[in-house]
Amino acid sequence: MSTGFTGKVAVITGAGSGIGRALAVNLAGRGARLALSDVDRDGLEATAVRCEARGADVREDLLDVTEREAVLAYAAEVKAHFGTVHQLYSNAGIAYYGEVWREAFKDIERVLDVNFWGVVNATKAFLPHLIESGDGHVVNVSSLFGLITLPAQSSYSASKFAVRGFTESLRQEMLVARHPVRVSCVHPGGIKTSVARNAMVADGLDPDSVARIFDRRMALHSPEMAAETIVEGVRRQRARILIGGEAKLFDLLNRVAPTGSQRFWAWYSRFLAVAPRKGTA
């Protein structure tokens, strides 16, 4: 299997902004053909324009990754359009902030539907085409919170740990079956995207406060840096792609001292206190 991108058909979910957009532009510059999707029509169109300006062959589709039948139909349409599919980047996701006692069941279900089942739906839909291509690669985006946990991130971490487990097991299955598909799991640290500003929050908490904390204390890297790290990891056939020095450091800390790591983050979270929603006690 080759490690280049020229002429490869790459599918990117969540391509309307952030890492997804940066991935699309990066791959466009490397000669890939692109199938881009998102629920944000304007963002998706803006990404497509930037990719086409780089000479890429682009297909754009509105797609909600939680709608399984739509994702299955989309995979078949992309295969028919391009004739083959080589790479899948499952990047669509949402953020959520709230302690367990504050969370509504419907919010927990929504986070898991998008972040975990969206990855499962896309992987299941495209995997037969990736195998058929003879040169496939599945790239599923987890998170730093798929390696460590923080207070008020229980649902988000659950979804991202699930992505990690699903993806790592899939990689083993591809090795056992000798299918021509590589598998990578991506763990970004703090990336400067709109995900925190658009995050869901539990009742009684101020979403603007969540966004400010993320922007000031956690957003360390540009989406372009994240995309370059992912693409380089794919080129090098990395099974695990960590983005940012903090992701590597905190992963090491968690493996060396898992209990101590939990205590550290419980202490540190006191400096990340989120304000109550205006008008609430």
Features:
single chain, alpha/beta, two-stranded parallel sheet, 281 residues, 9 strands, Rossmann fold
3D structure, described in words:
Helices cover 50% and strands 15% of the residues. By secondary structure, it is an alpha/beta fold. The protein has one domain (9-272): Rossmann fold (3-Layer(aba) Sandwich), CATH 3.40.50. It has a seven-stranded parallel sheet with strand order 3-2-1-4-6-7-9, with helices on both faces. Strand 1, helix 1 and strand 2 (33-38) form a beta-alpha-beta unit. The termini are far apart.
What are the SSEs and their pairings?
Elements lengths: L8 E4 L5 H12 L3 E6 L2 H13 L4 E5 L5 H15 L4 E4 L5 E2 L7 H29 L2 E6 L12 H24 L3 E8 L11 E2 L5 H12 L4 H13 L4 E4 L1 H12 L1 H11 L13
Parallel strand pairs: 1-2, 1-4, 2-3, 4-6, 5-8, 6-7, 7-9
Helix pairs in contact: 1-2, 1-7, 3-4, 4-5, 8-9
Computed over alpha carbons, the radius of gyration is 18 Å
Q: The CATH topology is what?
A: Rossmann fold
Distinct helical segment count: 9
Under CATH at level 1, the class stands as Alpha Beta
Secondary structure: number of strands: 9
How would you spell out the order of helices and strands?
Answer: EHEHEHEEHEHEEHHEHH
Strand content: 5-15%
Q: Domains counted in the coordinates: how many?
A: 1
Category from helices, strands and their pairing: alpha/beta
Main beta sheet strand tally, sense and closure:
7 strands, parallel
Question: How much helix, percentage-wise, in residues?
Answer: 40-55%
Q: Kindly state the mean pLDDT as a whole number? A: 89
The gross shape turns out to be globular
Termini separation comes to 59 Å
Please identify the oligomeric state: single chain
